């Protein structure tokens, strides 16, 4: 029942978003997408079929995002990309927002953090964010090697902006990836993400 209600919620949210063609639902094929990275290269989710993929919704202006980069999210990125996992950081902040960073600015910020995602992608129109019903930063997703959405929700179990809480929390991304890499189902497949609301471009924009 909980899974059906979750699917209904994100389906209704996507129906109301003009740019969303297909709603992302845990257990179902993840919506494919094509975005440009901060270096101008086109990246498609379908390019990584056969690999586990993490989608990280990112906004450097958000204290919850800064918390996790100050707390060494970079190590998590490096740990799993070294195991063949693809990590895509996606920024859906509209260009009229004070939090918006141009591709060079976002690339510079990620470099300053010594971040290690596979790619940093620009989604200024919000098309991909709305298709995945990404609501906050960081909102985290895992797409399994079969191309199905295996996890959607919070990065960890303590919804605070305090770096000191990281070590006490259960990291759902690490847990889910370790389970998938061990050939097991993800034990916590969905939960409520926490963070800063994504500044989407309005339908009239």
UniProtKB/TrEMBL annotation:
Coiled coil: none
Keyword Signal: yes
Gene3D superfamilies with a match to the protein in the record: Glutaredoxin (3.40.30.10)
InterPro entries attached to this UniProt entry: AhpC/TSA (IPR000866), PRX-like1 (IPR047262), Thioredoxin-like_sf (IPR036249), Thioredoxin_domain (IPR013766)
Signal peptide: 1-23
Domain Thioredoxin per the UniProt entry, residue ranges: 24-182
Pfam families according to UniProt: AhpC-TSA
CDD domains in UniProt: PRX_like1 (cd02969)
Superkingdom as given in the UniProt entry: Bacteria
Swiss-Prot/TrEMBL keywords: Signal
Protein name from the UniProt record: Thioredoxin family protein
The organism of origin for this protein: Hydrogenophaga defluvii
């Amino acid at each position: 029942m909980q899974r059906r209600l979750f699917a209904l919620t994100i389906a209704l949210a996507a129906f109301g978003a003009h740019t969303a063609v297909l709603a992302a639902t845990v257990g179902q094929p993840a919506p494919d997408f094509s975005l440009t990275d901060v270096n101008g290269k086109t990246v498609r989710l379908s390019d990584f079929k056969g690999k586990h993929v993490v989608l990280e919704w990112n906004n450097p202006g958000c204290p919850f995002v800064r918390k996790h980069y100050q707390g060494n999210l970079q190590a998590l990125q490096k740990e799993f990309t070294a195991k063949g996992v693809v990590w895509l950081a996606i920024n859906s902040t509209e260009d009229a927002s004070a939090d918006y960073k141009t591709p060079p600015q976002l690339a510079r910020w990620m470099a300053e953090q010594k971040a290690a995602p596979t790619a940093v992608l620009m989604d200024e129109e919000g098309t991909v964010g709305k298709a995945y019903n990404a609501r906050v930063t960081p909102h985290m997703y895992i797409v399994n090697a079969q191309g199905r959405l295996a996890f959607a929700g919070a990065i960890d179990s303590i919804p605070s902006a305090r770096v000191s809480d990281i070590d006490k929390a259960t990291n759902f991304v690490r847990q889910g990836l370790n389970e998938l890499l061990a050939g097991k189902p993800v034990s916590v497949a969905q939960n409520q993400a926490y963070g800063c609301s994504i500044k989407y471009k309005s339908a009239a924009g």
